[in-house]
Write a structure and sequence with these properties.
By secondary structure, this protein is mostly helical. It is built from 3 helices and no strands. The protein has one domain. It has helices at about 1-5, 45-70, 75-120. The mean pLDDT is about 90. It binds zinc ion (ZN).
Length: about 130
């Protein structure tokens, strides 16, 4: 499921075409009908956070690698301006992947939750 999302595919069925553009998701998956718009305006805030953390970690790893490889002649100007460009480009380029991964994480956790709730039924609760 996570691998499908990392390839910008539907986390449920793995089909392509869940994006109407580079970033915009379609209303539903064209293959399985999974609702991609979850009806909450703040649903993808987690995807923003995931994207930010992933790009920051990649940048930190790259910065450390360049620093260690070039010490003591570290190219600080290149790191400063190159890092800025990479951070901005990385945030834009990685965002659709973050959205698909966020959908996969929500799908997986909701599946676990349904299984867990079904194992421990609450007496007197009504089913939907
Ligand atoms: Zn699908």
């Amino acid at each position: 499921m996570l691998l499908r999302a990392m390839l910008r595919r539907c986390p449920n069925c793995g089909s392509r075409g869940i994006f109407a553009g580079y970033v915009a998701l379609r209303e539903r998956c064209p293959q399985c009908g999974l609702r991609l718009h979850r009806g909450e305006s703040d649903y993808f805030i987690g995807a923003y956070l995931l994207n930010l953390v992933a790009v920051e970690l990649l940048f930190a790893a790259l910065l450390a690698t360049i620093f260690v490889a070039t010490y003591p002649e570290t190219p600080w100007a290149l790191l400063q301006w190159g890092g800025l460009v990479l951070m901005l480009a990385g945030a834009v380029l990685c965002y659709p992947f973050s959205k698909a991964i966020w959908l996969a994480a929500e799908l997986k956790t909701s599946t676990w939750l349904v299984v867990w709730i079904s194992r421990f039924p609450v007496s007197g609760a009504t089913t939907l």
